[in-house]
């Protein structure tokens, strides 16, 4: 029986638009360089997380799931057809503008990229005054108008800019034109995919001094020109331990937020599905116990947590509690 939550070691990604705020805002230890992404929980071939605690310490997450599929992912997830982690979770430091881009849906990505599509959501963790994101196109923009603007270098006038601040939530379905602009750190939760089509890259060079490739034809094929969603904020519901909120509920992931100032047990079910817990504020201890019906004993364990940690909670792990030392915020990701 796998009875413990596992701390994950992320994969750090250097990006031309990255910086050092993953260190100053999210407590990551960074080597020299401009780091834009920390892949916190991933079994995608382009960046696989490593288990950093417990009896599976130093095991790649995909290998651990392969060894214990039902105990790790859960019966319900396996019945959906997943053999690896169906989500990919990142911290992103956009110290400069990301490219204007769009992601394909599952059907298009499978046919053209041998990958999943990408629906994602953003939870804003830090923003400088006046920070904005690109979230869709100006109303009435057509495919031909966008194509002409790309050709003439005037695409920026057709983009929809939205103001954002810490605590904002944005659901970004596949087909949505979007870009994270400078001065923002956010948590991104997405389908396990790395399929991205760039429309525009601000006429800047990549690390090699050459312009990064664009993918205009594919992007135009997958864009949803009717996208009209808005930035949202969610107020928590008062509970004995603090507050709980449902940030996003989609076919690809459900995301809850727990603000905790007293001991709390998040997970009560067992054997159904995994959870991924991301610590965005605070510190404390996670404690767990499991009845061993064969040995007739009760095992106990604990692990400290702090801001910036991510834990994979196997389906088979139950009866664990969070004991905050400092008021804590956890983001809980799972599939219904």
Structural account:
The chain is mostly beta strands and 336 residues long. The chain has two domains: 6-222, Jelly Rolls, CATH 2.60.120; 237-334, Jelly Rolls, CATH 2.60.120.10. It is built from seven helices and 22 strands. Strands 1, 6, 16, 17, 18, 19, 20, 21 and 22 form a nine-stranded antiparallel β-sheet that branches. Strand 16 and strand 17 form a beta hairpin. The protein is globular and about 70 Å long. The mean pLDDT is 94.
What is this structure, in a nutshell?
The chain is mostly beta strands and 336 residues long. It has 7 helices and 22 strands.
Radius of gyration: 20 Å
Shape: globular
Number of strands: 22
What is the element string, with H for helices and E for strands? EEHEEEEHHHEEHEEHEEEEEHEEEEEEE
Classification by helices and strands: mainly beta
Q: Ranges with pLDDT <50 over ≥5 residues?
A: none
Kindly estimate the percentage of residues that lie in beta strands according to DSSP: 35-45%
Reported by name, the CATH topology of the largest domain is: Jelly Rolls
Identify the CATH architecture of the largest domain.
Answer: Sandwich
**The CATH superfamily title of the largest domain:** Jelly Rolls
List keywords for this structure.
336 residues, mainly beta, Jelly Rolls, 2 domains, nine-stranded antiparallel sheet, six-stranded antiparallel sheet, 7 helices, 22 strands
